[in-house]
Amino acid sequence: MATKSCELVLCFFVFFVISFSAISVSAQTCDNTTGTFIPNSPYDKNRRLILSTLASNVTAQEGYFIGSIGIAPDQVFATGMCAPGSERDVCSLCIRSTSESLLQSCLDQADAFFWSGEETLCLVRYANRPFSGLLVMDPLGAIFNTGELNTNQTVFDIEWNNLTSSMIAGITSSSSGGNNSSKYYSDDIALVPDFKNISALMQCTPDVSSEDCNTCLRQNVVDYDNCCRGHQGGVMSRPNCFFRWEVYPFSGAIDQINLPKSPPPSVTSPSPIANITKNDSRISGGKIAAIVVVTVVTIILVVLGFVISNRRKQKQEMDLPTESVQFDLKTIESATSNFSERNKLGKGGFGEVYKGMLMNGTEIAVKRLSKTSGQGEVEFKNEVVVVAKLQHINLVRLLGFSLQGEEKLLVYEFVSNKSLDYFLFDPTKRNQLDWTMRRNIIGGITRGILYLHQDSRLKIIHRDLKASNILLDADMNPKIADFGMARIFGVDQTVANTGRVVGTFGYMSPEYVTHGQFSMKSDVYSFGVLILEIISGKKNSSFYQMDGLVNNLVTYVWKLWENKSLHELLDPFINQDFTSEEVIRYIHIGLLCVQENPADRPTMSTIHQMLTNSSITLPVPLPPGFFFRNGPGSNPGQSNSKSFACSVDEATITDVNPR
Fold it and tell me: Which residues form the Gnk2-homologous domain?
């Protein structure tokens, strides 16, 4: 009985060691040769920020993204990539888990990469210098399968060499087709007589040339042949290329590998990696018990330390991130020529916006809050905390802030084409927005809100979505701006209430105005209004005549729907580059967004699917909120369920008491 107990304990211990090794050993490399950083320094905070948003950016860019955040010397460059054909959810999960693994493993290295995955292959890399287009051969990550080949090595080598050579040739000769994520990718199988199939996968990053890809993959093959020949598979990975083969089918980067109990040393030259030797010495029951006790206690201490550290991290993240993004007031004054009038870009509800240029040549937009503005220090800090945690191609990027004396300044990336309303509601500029451009703007706004609601590590409710808060870059790509009113939701939180309603009339949902209740569906309502404005070129806050009655835009569109004349909504300035079916579908989606009951409105993920997949059947919309039922004795400012006086003012409302 004692022997059986010892055997059970031994089995548990061996299982634990193998399981623990499988988790900790991976094809990741923290590079010590390019410098280190101090934990919680500006560089570290920028690193955490860009990695936290990498998954959403990768999925938004069809499987491949490269970008940077911050200002030198704290600027962090990062890239993320998934294997072609990866499902969005699978890709997003792979990027998120891989990013988190890098943060936990590379504690102070300024350069690191990790090829990872179970259901799909993905890459995450960050560095303190630009690397796009540059072939980097060091360091090398190496893992080999501990199982040994049991076949004729000569015959096996011939098939193995033929397979790897043909794959490399195929990858580098057909690199021009497909999108970035499908460039330089191949998986293949070869049959070894009287043995098993060889499954192999290769991929390069799409930013390098085909010649560099060829060089990188060939060196991976050579390194494996020199270090690990005779084993049943393994992984060789570099920052720009990945190679894996096994004697069984696989999909991800490290799943199902029978990993050694400790990782082999990295290969920097074609020298063999030391094999893991097995010891057959007997271990006494007392020693086994002692080992198990020590192991369990160690695990408990590690978990406890992780929980405490995570709680401290969460508390720190809610504080103002002063170290990473704070600018000296004199720096901002110098960049804007002391807030010169000629540098003024415009004036918003909370102050003025100025163009500036930092000493390193970076163009910036400085939001200078007026001393009498409704946005106080609480809202100011809220905008800094919220935006500093976000990174997406369709969100304006916060570079920093300054809070000195009475001056409250927010420093954003400069977006050259001003805001959407500057074009949309101008009688001469709106003709620059053809249907293709308006459709792309709607799609970009959709992805930005979807990121806020679902894909970022925070759940953000914007609460002030409107045309003037959508900025347009040089390529007319939309960027959501102005997060002063935004609220962070908990993971499981869906609805919140407030006694202080903020936002802009015409864009605010009925339940928010009348009851102070807001949720993701409040943003959906605002987005629906935006869709209708973008298609019509009309402001929701304006009033229109139809059948001799006064209407707001939402009511006007609803009556067009009832009359089956939605085509009348289309802005006459839109060029003839559209189909009426597509335009009507977009109007239909807009009406679904502005339905009175929040439960009837679709989520942003459903909206994205509706916009991108025309085969999805749209439900019939119900009457919208603030639908004016005009008639004898009726008040034109009355909705179908609540009496409410609408304002046509475009300024953001900061203090309204809900009923």
Answer: 28-131, 137-250
| Residue 573: per-residue pLDDT | 84
Is pTM beyond 0.90? Reply is no
Q: Is 345 annotated as a binding residue?
A: yes
| Pairwise CA distance, residues 157 & 223, whole Å | 15
Residue 115 to residue 235: CA distance in whole angstroms: 10
Q: In which region does residue 411 sit, left (phi positive, over 0), alpha (psi from -120 to 50) or beta (all else)?
A: beta
Q: Note if 523 is an active site residue.
A: no
Contact between residue 370 and residue 350 where contact means Cβ atoms under 8 Å apart: yes
Is 410 within 8 Å of 484 (Cβ atoms)? no
Please indicate if the annotation marks 356 as binding a ligand.
no
Q: How far is CA 373 from the centre of its chain?
A: 32
Judge if the upstream peptide bond of residue 260 is cis by omega within 30 degrees of 0: no
Q: All domains of the chain, ordered by start, with CATH? A: 26-132 (3.30.430.20), 143-246 (3.30.430.20), 322-413 (3.30.200.20), 420-656 (1.10.510.10)
Catalytic pick among 31, 455, 464, 482: 464
- Using the 8-state DSSP alphabet, how is residue 74 labeled? S
Q: For 186-204, what is each residue's pLDDT tens digit? A: 888 888 777 778 888 888 9
Residues of the chain scoring pLDDT < 70: 1-28, 174-182, 251-297, 303, 305-325, 348-349, 371-379, 382-383, 457, 484, 486-503, 505, 542-551, 626-659
Residue 513 marked as a ligand binder: no
